[in-house]
């Protein structure tokens, strides 16, 4: 009787503009490959943060899923959790946004980052990340402008020496680069002459940024991060990326220490002091672009599994088998 941990380490934020269905299909294929390669009694599958989100930092379209895409993802993950009789599926996280009116009757975009946990077609937890990081970038204002208003005026003033009277001369050129690079030009200024007023070097970009400045907000989650695992007496808890640095699961778990501490992340490293485990305990970390991590706790004995102890099915899919614990 084997407990199988499977971890996807795909850096999905580098895949631009992929459809929800494509990512769901890839995740289903991963689960089926693990099932075929192992002799599982119980499978725990964890994907990385932002598994379900549009594009990357340089993309020129909105990075967040819509509510409809978020709901489609949840439905697809529920179906994927039925692929094996006893499968605990943490489908990474879904970063999505919806619009709402602010006090001035303008439209704001509220962004959430949620980690769904499914078992046997049922949603055990939908944990909302409490501490933001990576959900909202400065250049998202430019993406909103493109989506709502059309093309951005990319004319900018480029210094080109001085005239005989000491006045600065300029060429008017087109700003180039991805959205992050364009956003970095926002506060660049030029002076038309000695002692002249500082004016925007890229007025169109500055105007586009300012139109939506302050109208994109990350909404911290308040939901319970821990849950009971059906069919036994063990418990689990989920944590998302940077909040691991703040021991979010330790501080917010309504069940206290849990048997499974499941961390889905994009950039954060593992902090042993922030493990939230009770024996028999399992800390599992799925981090984008990095080797998977497993730590077990049996009584007072803590064991760290090295990267080479995992079996790699492809560059972003790994599994490891351990004996089934009592209570699962």
Explain what this protein looks like in three dimensions.
- With 328 residues, this protein is an alpha/beta fold.
- 19% of the residues lie in helices and 36% in strands.
- The protein contains six helices and 19 strands.
- Strand 9 and strand 10 form a beta hairpin.
- Helix 1 runs parallel beside helix 2 and helix 3 crosses helix 5.
Taken in chain order, the helices and strands follow as: EHEHEEEEHEEHEEHEEEHEEEEEE
Oligomer: single chain
> In angstroms, what is the radius of gyration?
24 Å
Low-confidence stretches: none
The number of distinct β-strands equals 19
Strand content: 35-45%
Summarize the structure.
This protein has about 325 residues and is an alpha/beta fold. It is about 20% helix and about 35% strand. The protein contains 6 helices and 19 strands.
List the helices and strands and how they pair.
Elements: E1 2-8, H1 20-37, E2 42-46, H2 67-80, E3 87-90, E4 94-101, E5 107-119, E6 122-128, H3 140-149, E7 155-162, E8 168-174, H4 179-183, E9 189-191, E10 198-200, H5 203-212, E11 216-218, E12 226-228, E13 235-240, H6 248-252, E14 258-265, E15 277-287, E16 293-298, E17 301-305, E18 311-314, E19 317-323
Parallel strand pairs: 1-2, 2-3, 5-11, 13-14, 14-15
Antiparallel strand pairs: 1-19, 3-5, 4-5, 5-6, 7-8, 9-10, 12-13, 15-16, 16-17, 18-19
Helix pairs in contact: 1-2, 3-5
Tag the structure with descriptive keywords:
36% strand; 19 strands; 328 residues; single chain
């Amino acid at each position: 009787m084997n407990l199988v941990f499977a971890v996807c380490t795909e850096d999905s934020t580098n895949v631009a503009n992929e459809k929800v269905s494509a990512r769901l299909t890839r995740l289903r294929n991963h689960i089926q490959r693990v099932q075929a390669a192992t002799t599982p009694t119980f499978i725990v599958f964890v994907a990385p943060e932002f598994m379900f989100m549009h594009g990357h930092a340089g993309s020129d379209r909105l990075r967040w899923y819509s509510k409809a895409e978020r709901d489609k993802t949840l439905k697809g993950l529920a179906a994927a959790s039925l692929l094996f009789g006893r499968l605990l599926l943490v489908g990474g996280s879904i970063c999505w946004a919806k619009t709402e009116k602010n006090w001035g009757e303008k439209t704001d975009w509220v962004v959430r980052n949620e980690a769904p946990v499914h078992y046997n077609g049922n949603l055990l937890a939908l944990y909302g990340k409490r501490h933001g990081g990576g959900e909202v970038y400065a250049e998202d204002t430019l993406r909103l402008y493109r989506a709502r208003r059309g093309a951005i005026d990319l004319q900018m003033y480029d210094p080109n020496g001085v005239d005989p009277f000491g006045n600065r001369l300029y060429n008017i050129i087109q700003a180039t680069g991805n959205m992050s690079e364009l956003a970095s030009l926002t506060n660049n200024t030029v002076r038309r002459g000695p002692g002249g007023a500082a004016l925007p070097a890229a007025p169109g970009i500055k105007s586009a940024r300012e139109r939506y400045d302050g109208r994109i907000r990350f909404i911290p989650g308040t939901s319970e991060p821990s849950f009971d695992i059906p069919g036994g007496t063990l418990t689990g808890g989920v944590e998302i990326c940077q909040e691991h640095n703040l021991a979010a699961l330790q501080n917010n778990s309504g069940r206290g220490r849990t048997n499974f501490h499941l961390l889905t992340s994009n950039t954060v490293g593992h902090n042993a002091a922030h493990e939230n485990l009770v024996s028999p305990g399992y800390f599992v970390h799925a981090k984008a672009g990095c080797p998977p991590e497993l730590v077990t706790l049996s009584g007072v004995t803590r064991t760290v599994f090295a990267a080479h102890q995992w079996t790699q099915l492809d560059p972003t899919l790994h599994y490891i088998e351990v004996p089934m614990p009592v209570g699962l």
